[in-house]
Amino acid sequence: MFRRFFKIVFLVCIGFGVSAQSNTKTTPLASQVIRGKVIDYVSERAVVGASITLKDARKGTQTDPEGNFSLGKMPIGRYQIQVSSVGYESQTISELLLESGKEMVLEVRLRPSANQLAEAVVRAPSANLSGAVTSIQNISTEQIFRYPGTYLDPARLATAYAGVANSNDQANGMIIRGNSPNGMQWRLEGVEIVNPNHLSNAGTFSDRITQNSGGVNILSAQLLGNMNFLTGAFPAEYGNALSGVMDLRLRKGNDKKHEFTAQAGLIGIDLAAEGPMGKKGASYLVNYRYSFTGLLAAMGVKFGGEDIRFQDLSFNLNFPTKKAGNFTIFGMGGLSSNVFEAVRDTTQWLVQKDGFDIYFKNKMGAAGLTHSLSLGKKLLWRTVVATSGLKNSREGYVLSKVNFQRFLNQADSSIKTKSTFTTNLTYKFGEYSNLKVGVFVTRQYDELFARSTDKKSSGAAQGLVIQPYANLHLSLLPKLTANIGLHYLKYTFNQTKSIEPRVSVQYQITNNQTISAAYGLHSQLQQPEIYFALATPNSGFLGNATLDVTKSRHYVLSHQYSFKKGSYFKTELFYQQIFNVPTALFNPTFSTLNLIEDYTPEPLQNFGKGRNYGVEISYQQYLTNGFYALTNATLYNATYTNHDGIERNSRFNGKHIFNLTIGKEWSRSKDRTLGTSLRVVWLGGFYEREINQQASIENKRLIYKNADAFTVKQADYFRPDFRIYMKKSKEKYSRTLALDIQNVANYQNVSYSYYDILQNKIVQQYQMGLIPILSYRWEF
């Protein structure tokens, strides 16, 4: 079957290429406009007279009094742009792709610098808006479309970087430096939001709802702009996260020209539009997506025996003014469902799941307003008002083999909302130092009902999460900078609080070498399942609701060497000291550090500890002369200790992470490009609980030797992904045909083991095998 599929794809690619070749002589050379704006990183005021140079193209210009620049129409292709101005750190922005279907509109933020470098700092198109000097990756939308195995999802792309592993092929959960996926946080436009993923139960052992992951991100990559992914020792403005932060920013629509994008593939059908609104620089950007599996389900075709559907809508409206600042209105929403219905014929039941009916629904939405205003040359005021909500429900019915009568076996439902007001002021004093102060005030509401045959968690809670912060950035010497910050967190529901100092320093050893160090104390609220595990309905008693926040001290030491041809080599040492971890009074092995979607119906106290430490070594070559590479190795150890004093392996202690991503592009003609990329990931196996096989068979249900101890190490995980694509540009539009193959070698990687009632034995469940994803993208 797959051979026939690949033959068809190959013939389509050949036809696409022949068509492109036959039109080369008669079609005018495709070109497009490159323009943008250069602003100060701190004040966001225009940088006047900045020099803009297209490297290797002998083309340049300067910014006008409003900071704008235009290089006019340029031939399509890859470009590097160097931006420099007196008193600022020069930048060379790599991996810029100019296509005929869309103008290239850039926003370049220049950092003040007391030391004008001999060589420009090479960056990806995304800007570092966080101020972090260690443990940060800047992710661009173009990388999401170019790298293999991403499913057009920033979370899956993030697993290509050091220290990050995917929890399961079916989901985008991120295990960062040995921490549970529950330890990370999603942000949109600088504000924490609820889980922004479709099918939040995907890839879990119990098929229950997760806090931070899902099958695919609700926010389409078509809308994404700057994305910062932080993995440790966060700056002062980040709170309520232990392991990492995915900070998403939306790009602005084109304010001068209407543009459209249509994309079809296994992920779904995407339709996007952007353009100007009026004549004063306002713009719109909107995208709608409907899942391809949903279309199949509507025709009666199920994917893996399941009816999987999702759809989403996202938008970003931008309204600049001359005196009142810049306003944006943004929003996103998604619906998803997963239905598995047993065949009413017991002769076709092969595994335990075949005897169940399972219904899952997921609704998520977020909307907000941002406002930024420059008050003079030294002060920037930014405010965001946003709200987000998530509603999940899941019902599992076991069927009688006699008459297929259904019995409710599991029932889960949850509602979570976050409504946030945040405002901050950034004051620039001197030439190279600034102070940023701000506050987040979030009204958080949680409602939960979770029940299975052996445990229950239910309750409701609301309160304010108050987080003021301050960060002082100092240029101590021409080559030495420091950030000194303080973050405070208080949750009024149970009156828990945390005072968290943050500090980082960076020293420039030579023009192309830096050494950095960072420390931060971080905390995070508990999951609703933990708070409500012992709740008594209608009594006001919420069980473990008085639990304190879990805390972690992060220490990071980093060294980076930048090469002249757009590449760097980086080494980071990290150490995380975790404490205040909820543990069970009567079970010495249970720790919330091992949870993803599960919980325990026992009294808990903050007696537990954890230790994660290791080294990350990375090399990245930005796309230059048609070639790019990203390779990294992480060696780490993740353990936990409860009140019995015994140090145990954490569930996520895989010991090592190795990634290799390489890619090559060839210009087959002046308007046609062929590209390939390969990613190989090798992870150390995680730990799972040891099953008592004899007791499980005798009692006809799953029984562990020790219910909460993860003592069995799984086999190592290995997966190669491959992507091939062809881009063809006409005068007014461009097309991309791509084939993305996840797990091209079809390796069988273990997901978990369980006792199967139908087979009456222990069964290993495997992760996803070979999955081909053919897509077609049209921009005009």
Automatic annotation (TrEMBL):
It is found in: Cell outer membrane. It comes from Emticicia oligotrophica (strain DSM 17448 / CIP 109782 / MTCC 6937 / GPTSA100-15). Residues 1-22 form the signal peptide. It holds the Pfam family CarbopepD_reg_2. InterPro entries: Beta-barrel_TonB_sf (IPR036942), CarboxyPept-like_regulatory (IPR008969), Plug_dom_sf (IPR037066). Keywords: Cell outer membrane, Membrane, Receptor, Signal. Gene3D superfamilies: Carboxypeptidase-like, regulatory domain, TonB-dependent receptor, beta-barrel domain, TonB-dependent receptor, plug domain. This is TonB-dependent receptor plug.
